[in-house]
Amino acid sequence: MSPSFALPCVATATCAALDPCADANYLRCSGFHGLDGVKRQLAGRYGELGFRIQPSAIANGVPISLWHDVPLIVSEGESGFVVNAYFEISRGTQAKLELNKWARHNPIWQDRKKVAGQDFERPRYLAWSPEPSNYGALPRTWENVLEDDPRTGYPGDTDPIDVVDIGSKASPAGLVYRCKVIGALGMIDGNELQTDWKIYVINLEDPMAEAISDITDVPRVRLDQWGLFWRFYHTAAGSRQNFFYAPGTTTGFSADPHWLGASEARQVVEASAASYQKMIRDQLWKKVDPPYWVPDLK
Known about the structure:
Layout: E1 38-43, E2 52-57, E3 73-77, E4 80-89, E5 97-99, E6 108-110, E7 112-114, E8 121-123, E9 134-137, E10 162-165, E11 176-188, E12 195-203, H1 220-232, E13 243-245, E14 253-254, E15 259-260, H2 262-281
Parallel strand pairs: 10-12
Antiparallel strand pairs: 1-2, 2-6, 3-4, 4-9, 4-11, 5-6, 7-8, 9-10, 11-12, 11-13, 11-15, 13-14
């Protein structure tokens, strides 16, 4: 059974001002520690084009960009490489929610697709299956579409780097919480031929977080399930199969997933963070079409 989606507060709901999870009445986000001082404002109906999630500061209501305003690194030490991650799609749901790179303050919105030959757009949904894990991205990272990825040789996919939380509970969409980086999968989009890294993490509040420090600690059957999903999920909409970066093989790529451990995953994240800094410093956000929205940097 798919988990219920986190509905917005209503007048009769109890929404504690200091609890960044209580605004959605999602079991008070049991098992998650949201970013302190941040709440989510939801508008529209889930699954429809008008749906939006806009995080804002509890203290003054000022909108917060999950991409630009949230720090990436939380800590580096005995607990591993811990980062903030924001989540767009809750495990078990199918509506394709995504951070809007072009809109002011980068809200999460219902992704859409123009219908060929007709003058309207439709909401996008995952066609292959419901999302198998909590899915989102890392703040202040960027997969550079203007340059080839130094590992894969294919350009990035224009987005903040994707993150997959393997934790045991479905997260509310739009929530930022602390995660430990445990591995990475270098997916290459079979149609666009762009690099689309998947950084695997575990929610730091998850009961298994202490026992899982590397992707090798995850049962093989689960890795195989994710591999099948990433290889074939685009084909349900008529697209080509994806393939994977596989260092050490004859071609450097494979139809089957090649998992990188926590140490290499950290390097991928750091490289993506450096790409983000370059994007801001060199104003590369102006060179994509259409240009991204970024905060006033004056």
